[in-house]
């Protein structure tokens, strides 16, 4: 993963990212939680450089159940459609 600018610290199954993990994205957004077949899957939390966090249950890289724990959220952070959008949200300035 180093070649993408991301860093993965966690378990592998058959050479794929799977199990408990810490995944650091190039924007310094950090995911801590479960992975399956190389994507966020199960319970996990995204920690944004702004200090906000996004707790969710993930299914195949998409958030299907969300708990908001921060009073400061951007529109994209609040309603992600895919992990790519969540990654973009980490560099979106908060409104307010």
From TrEMBL:
One Pfam family per UniProt: MORN
UniProt entry tagged with the keyword Repeat: yes
InterPro entries: MORN, Morn5
UniProt GO cellular component terms: motile cilium
Record's subcellular location: Cell projection, Cilium, Flagellum
Signal peptide segment: none
SUPFAM superfamilies to which the protein is assigned, alphabetical: Histone H3 K4-specific methyltransferase SET7/9 N-terminal domain
Keywords: Cell projection, Cilium, Flagellum, Repeat
Gene3D superfamilies reported for this sequence: Histone H3 K4-specific methyltransferase SET7/9 N-terminal domain (2.20.110.10)
Protein's name in the database: MORN repeat-containing protein 5
Organism: Macaca fascicularis
UniProt lineage: Eukaryota, Metazoa, Chordata, Craniata, Vertebrata
């Amino acid at each position: 993963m180093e070649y993408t600018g991301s860093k993965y610290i966690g378990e592998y199954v058959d050479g794929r990212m799977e199990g408990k993990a810490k995944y650091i994205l190039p924007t310094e957004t950090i995911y801590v939680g479960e992975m399956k077949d190389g994507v966020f899957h199960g319970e996990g939390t995204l920690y944004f450089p702004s200090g906000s966090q996004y707790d969710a249950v993930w299914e195949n890289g998409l958030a299907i159940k969300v708990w908001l724990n921060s009073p400061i959220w951007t529109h994209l952070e609040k309603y992600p459609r895919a992990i790519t959008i969540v990654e973009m949200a980490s560099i979106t300035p908060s409104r307010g």
